């Protein structure tokens, strides 16, 4: 059947959702093993953050009774961070360091630079107990005090189920004293590369054969997207061999079977032939490259079939599988989609959403390679996919397009002597509404 | 000394460059172990890509002598992908599948849908050798032929030294038959968290003490940025203990020593005290949070000291260390910097580059939490750093700012029933020149 890109995106996401790969038992991991994983449950804070009222500045802790006045205050023992200080008596002020616990009785912290003298006394100067300090008076209660629980109250939700654990999220859990977390299981993919022409890299290449790029390409893409590739295999073009391999699939060990090749209109389409009587549907999606697509289930396990050309396979991954993984598993983070100005004119088949490869920088995008789906060298030089939606027949240079960022924006190497810059990926002039690709 | 953000960025990048952490011997890795690494040397293609002239479509391979005419051609044996076909005789046309090797003598491929009949004969129909096909005539030589080496010629540079190896780059190497690569060594960081108040997560928390967030936060950030944390340690506030630890550092085993805390103006600044007579400089950078900074060398090893509050530490990492790693090591990919519209008004100290935390979506950014540097819960909810450059005292709602994307742009979970969308990170109206943050 024929489908739009959006229809097939919805079908793939629905397939993964129904597959239930994310409903397996959660894993418990130490924080250092959890980066890039999604939380399986809400985490509540077992402590207040901060755990106690503390000083936001180096200065003097002032008693509640002494906020208003300017009379000299006797200097008490200093309060470093990390101790539980004795209560503060009225008429005294205690030197206090940033992060140190506010003593009982204290209501505010006056920064050292507003005190007179505006430097801390040495231990020797304080030794006889007669040192005094004058503060400006009229001090608001709470000045430069970080209240216990002001960042996060004990029992409050630190992170919600589904949260993707990056540095900040893991740092928050550490600050709460949480040493391990329950995370969703990794999504497990069985990867099958088909075709009699395909040879393992490193082996000798017989005439008429090519090296298998798809296993490496898709395994790297899936792992970068937080999935495990549990098994991969090169298969020829014999439907009986493929059927035999697929018969071993069980729902318990795999969340997705992903094949490349063999789903088109040719005379030797191994996946199509092997799955002719299965619950797998073969579609023609209005996408170039990546038009032929297969999806369905095998023994209850979600199945996707991508076309065999490497560029078609990675475009299929970026357009269908990666967004579905983001939405269904919470991992990986969605790709940024940016507006950009085309550096050159381009033609596109109006009946299809064409995806070209480009190099994006400073709000402009230059195309690399042509539209053909075998141009892997051009793909490797690209940092974005350039979207030429359905209905577009040609665009002149200077037109605005959307690009999906899939690689790094180039920076000058340091040796060039260029100043260090924050490179911006932004460009101007596009409205900011979300859209489905059309 | 006082510095601008750009001055300190240049100093940190220069420090890492001079440190020579990237000049160690390269490692040789199998492709599946190489994602996220940078190539240590140029890789030349040992084969042509594609390796041989092949069909771009399913159709008929046509002899050079038969391109012009429309006379019926005898149908030869079909050519599947993966074999070396026999030469094509004039007056015959061979059914050929996408990716299959063009036979000697053939000059073009006519797609099956332009042939008459516009379907392939079955084996039975071809059995007596009398099947013929009519082609449209006036066929250009090279039509739907992918020429050997047209993507990348044998001996050409597949990837340059320094290239960051993602899925596409690894896929290209696999397609070239390259099974392993020489990559730059990982950058090795020794991480020290200082302060008497700091307690390991999971242990009991004594009054006045807090859990150590910085080790978890910075280890996750460094690993996500492609660096190894070779050792980390919690240290108290005793300069003698710190000096003892630092004395064990040797240039052979560490590329950077990174400490948090103890570099400010208080009375107990352990890093400052321990390194008073060293080659480490203590600066006040016009940045909030993250103003106090230390940098220099210890026993010839680059040293950076970040402030101790977790938000200050991660802002220091994102503003100074991560960009320097990108430029000096080629790993990690630089963060996207986007233009955004402020959802609310904001104040900022005009003498400093203030970095706030925000949630960016659809071209707009909302601030989360205040400017204070202890607000780790707010940081964990943010997906970007919001830049309020030096000279800005306040900005009204609707103002344009730059944001550095540090986390995922939120998407609706599938259960909401919202249509699958490509979320765009673009927004409009900013010029697209690069700038140093000022």
TrEMBL record, chains A, B:
Enzyme class of the recorded protein, top EC level: transferase
One annotated Gene Ontology cellular component of this protein: cytosol
Pathway terms, separated by semicolons: Cofactor biosynthesis; molybdopterin biosynthesis
Domain spans labelled MoaB/Mog: 190-327
Pfam families in the record: MoCF_biosynth, MoeA_C, MoeA_N
EC number(s) recorded for this UniProt protein: 2.10.1.1
A GO molecular function held by the record: metal ion binding
GO BP: Mo-molybdopterin cofactor biosynthetic process
CDD domains associated with the record: MoeA (cd00887)
Xref: InterPro entries: MoaB/Mog-like_dom_sf, MoaB/Mog_dom, MoeA-like, MoeA_C_domain_IV, MoeA_C_domain_IV_sf, MoeA_linker/N, MoeA_linker/N_sf
Keywords in alphabetical order: Magnesium, Metal-binding, Molybdenum, Molybdenum cofactor biosynthesis, Transferase
Family: Belongs to the MoeA family.
Matching NCBIfam families: Glp_gephyrin (NF045515), molyb_syn (TIGR00177)
Name of the molecule in the record: Molybdopterin molybdenumtransferase
The organism of origin for this protein: Arthrobacter pityocampae
Species lineage: Bacteria, Bacillati, Actinomycetota, Actinomycetes, Micrococcales
